[in-house]
Design brief:
Largest sheet: 2 strands, antiparallel
Strand content: under 5%
Number of strands: 2
Radius of gyration: 17 Å
Order of helices and strands: HHHHEEH
Length: about 140
């Protein structure tokens, strides 16, 4: 590969990383909670396990709407990632997946000082967070 071509790929890769960071930061700044009317209120204690049943159609509907509003720009429509962020259809099942999901959504993620995902703990209610997780369970793939 020529030096010019190598330089082109380095610049392109750097630009893509910067764009991904900007998208992540913008997502955190623009996060919006959704109307959770019809869901069981969860209180202020931070839960580690999803309290909603994937058969609860209201939780699934709210979760789908909240995902599209807050997560799809990075994680893709239908949770099918376009490569910027992980494909959330492959989260682990059960309590392990609940814990991974809750921790990442609430606290965000950084690597080498770069924000990969902003924290959403101050932007999304617990009801919204767990409704999103409930919807993700319904689109999960092996």
């Amino acid at each position: 590969m020529s030096n010019a071509r190598s330089l082109y790929f380095v610049i392109l890769s750097s630009a893509m990383l910067l764009l991904a960071a900007e998208v992540a930061l913008a997502a955190g700044e623009e996060a919006r909670d959704v109307d959770t009317t019809g869901l069981k209120k969860l209180g202020s204690e931070v839960l580690k396990v999803n309290p909603y049943d994937p058969n609860d159609q209201r939780a699934v509907e709210i979760g789908a709407a909240a995902f599209n509003e807050n997560c799809a720009r990075c994680h893709g429509l239908g949770a099918v990632s376009g490569g910027i962020a992980p494909d959330l259809r492959f989260l682990p099942e059960g309590e392990e997946g609940d814990e991974v999901f809750s921790q990442k959504v609430q606290n965000g993620s950084t690597r080498d000082g770069r924000v990969l995902m902003p924290p959403f703990k101050d932007a999304l209610s617990q009801e919204t967070l767990w409704a999103i997780r409930t919807w993700l369970i319904t689109v999960r793939e092996e």
